[in-house]
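Final report, closing paragraph on structural work. Over the funding period we assembled a curated collection of sequence-structure pairs, and we close with a single example.
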Amino acid sequence: MAEQDDPEREFDIKWADGAEQKEPSARARMLAARWKENPPAPQPFRADAKRVRRPRSPWTSTALVFGCVAAVIVLLGYANFRAPF
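Its predicted structure, as stored:
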């Protein structure tokens, strides 16, 4: 119990952050060792050029939805017009 009350043993975060050298994490050390033997293949920053599309305007999506709704209304109206009473 006496050790827990000792203020000199308390961890000082400012002192730890002020350290000149910082040890890398275990994952960083593992990856550095793995990549030393077998470096990873370079990855492009952006997606495949074949799959890159231009950004669409929000109005394009809106027009597409309204167009589909109008087509369904016309199709249902035509089906009711052709149906025998």
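The helical segments are 2-5, 13-17, 26-37, 58-82. The mean pLDDT is 79. We thank the funder for supporting this effort.
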